[in-house]
Amino acid sequence: MALLARMRSSFAAKSNVNVFLRAHMGGTRQINFQSYFVTPKELSKALTKNVPTKISTAPRVVPLCAAWFLPNDPKGRTGSQVFKEKRIPSARFFDLDAVKDHDSPYPHMLPTPEEFAKAMQEIGIRIEDEVVVYDTQELGIFSAPRVAWTMKIFGHPTVHLLNNFRLWVEEGHPTESGEIEAVVEEPSQYPTPSLDASKVVNFSQMKEIAKDHGKEGAEGVQILDARSKGRWAGTEPEPRPGLPSGHMPGSINVPVPELLDPQTGALLPGKELRRLFESKGLDSEKPIVSSCGTGVTAAVIDAALGEAGFGQPEARRLYDGSWT
User: I want to staple 63 with a disulfide (CB 3.0 to 4.6 A). Which of 36, 91, 120, 192 is the partner?
Assistant: First the structure.
């Protein structure tokens, strides 16, 4: 019954998207990408075909930088800093530390629909834009999946992930630098969306899942944790002062680096990801909840599950807030 309710909620969210599109788009749009993850070459080609102009109202391909670093980054880097230093031309910046629930004591809880729409308006993204979210050259795939996941559950029709910005730079594609404000020519009229709650697990639900772990007749939800092995095992400190390390009962450690190519920081191919998940003893027939420190890198696991075709999409959720 719970799964059926989540599916109905997902259908309702998709219906809202269709209302947005009918209201804000005329005719049929062109789809530039065939898969969720796109290569630098594919993005470069799409940007060349879709050069934006001030007077055009046609759907655009918009790169969206989701650069973010942990609060204990050894070099003290910030997302806005690296965005100013080097970015894809015409890219916008999504600030994970600003676009959140400001009434929550936790760092990266989902914003309200109104706050999300306001953020999209301020960075000039339209509901009809085909958005390609990307990470930093320094870290590879890291925080972009969280931003892409956020856009998807708020019903943005076309969202993709670049795999990845490091390869974009190494392959010689163009970059630019400059202040964040210089990118946005004018705010958009982004409508207030609906949240697809079927993709999110809250604290109360997570407590019940953990409490039921190992019990006969339980749903058998599998909890995946994207943090490092040391933080998961309780042998390394958390990056936020005062927060103990360790893990939830029954959780399975899937550190983000295991999902990435060690040289490029790009997500591994789907077949390799599937073998990895199988090696962790995961059951593709059982529900999966992805978690991490604050809900950011949990989305890397969620994206990797999708790329591997592992598990049913309607049975994959993310624990917002996660270990924090």
Answer: 91
Which is catalytic among the residues 67, 248, 292, 304? Answer: 292
Contact (Cβ atoms closer than 8 angstroms) between residue 268 and residue 144? no
Active site residue 65: no
Q: What per-residue confidence (pLDDT) applies to 114?
A: 97
User: Residue 116: CB partners within 8 Å, gap ≥ 6?
Assistant: 99, 110, 150, 154, 193
pLDDT of 195-223, one tens digit each? 999 999 988 888 888 787 766 556 789 99
Instruction: Specify the pairing of strand 222-225 against strand 252-253.
Output: parallel
Token pair recorded at residue 201: 């697990």
Distance of alpha carbon 185 from alpha carbon 67, whole angstroms: 21
Count of beta carbons in the 10 Å neighbourhood of residue 322? 26
Question: Given a cut of 70, is residue 76 above it in pLDDT?
Answer: yes
Which tokens go with 170?
């190494």
The C-alpha atoms of residue 272 and residue 268 are separated, in whole angstroms, by 6
> How far, rounded to the nearest angstrom, does the alpha carbon of residue 81 sit from its chain's CA centroid?
20
In whole angstroms, give the CA distance from residue 189 to residue 122.
Answer: 9
Biggest alpha carbon–alpha carbon distance for the chain: 62
Tell me whether the omega of the peptide bond preceding residue 163 falls within 30 degrees of 0, making it cis. no
